Amino acid sequence: MPGLAAPLIAWYRDAARDLPWRRDGFGAWGTLVSEFMLQQTPVARVIPHLEAWLARWPTPTDLASSPPADAVTQWANLGYPRRALWLHRAAVEIRDRHDGVVPRDIDALLALTGIGDYTARAVAVFAYGDRHPVVDTNTRRVLARAVEGSAQPGPPHRRDLERMDAELPDDVAASAIVNAAAMELGAIVCTARAPKCDICPLAAQCAWRAAGYPESEDRRRRQAKYEGSDRQARGAVLKALRETAPAPVPMFAVLPDWPDARQRDRAIDSLVADGLVEIEDDLLHLPR
């Protein structure tokens, strides 16, 4: 078994958090929805939204049968609302192309709206149990430290998949556990700013620890400040429209007291361009 696999598996059995998408019978649709929601959003915020979403739309066909506005409204304050629109489009594609069943094949998953390489592999591995390397930010950090001896990973690269694949055991079930364990380790132990090296199951073989924890350039992309940003203005516009949906709102009545009128107009324009808002005769509404 590859070098990291055995200690990761042993640690994960005792330390893994009890999360909805890890429970038996959760299903491929639930896994897909959770992966959409977890993008740049903390687990604690996602769980109640995920449960409410799946209670309302337990299958892709259920979501596809609702208008896009319902998806955007249900998304509420999760942030990056384009994900809601993409998820709705993916549900329509799953209904129309795959008889309402989330596909297992990675290429078929990649052909769905809003699904990139990570999400496609995550669904294939965690929902269907296939053997593929799955690499997120947490996994990349674990590999950078344990294997390469670097404090932080470099920019995402195709070789990240090759490095993770080298750590996966041949056994398919065990390989899925190693994928999940590497992510979990990066999320709760091998964290970016305060790693808990004293309780790490990889401490004995960690190249970064053996090298004396050398510093390396942190090339992670910094998220722009939210307060006062165009992203905040976009969120405020969507909130105003969600509160009145399905009734449209005159453009002049949307955030009339926003401190920067040009920013407000820019936010509306960008939401229209993204398909999150529609405009008819100076009336704004969520997509129908």
Automatic annotation (TrEMBL):
Gene3D superfamilies: Helix-hairpin-Helix base-excision DNA repair enzymes (C-terminal), Hypothetical protein, domain 2. One of its GO terms (biological process) is base-excision repair. It catalyses: Hydrolyzes free adenine bases from 7,8-dihydro-8-oxoguanine:adenine mismatched double-stranded DNA, leaving an apurinic site. GO terms for molecular function: 4 iron, 4 sulfur cluster binding; 8-oxo-7,8-dihydroguanine DNA N-glycosylase activity; adenine/guanine mispair binding; metal ion binding; oxidized purine DNA binding; purine-specific mismatch base pair DNA N-glycosylase activity. PANTHER family: ADENINE DNA GLYCOSYLASE (PTHR42944:SF1). Its EC number is 3.2.2.31. Keywords: 4Fe-4S, DNA damage, DNA repair, Glycosidase, Hydrolase, Iron, Iron-sulfur, Metal-binding. Belongs to the Nth/MutY family. This is Adenine DNA glycosylase. CDD domains: ENDO3c. Pfam families: EndIII_4Fe-2S, HHH, HhH-GPD. Its cofactor is [4Fe-4S] cluster. It comes from Microbacterium testaceum. Residues 37-188 form the HhH-GPD domain.
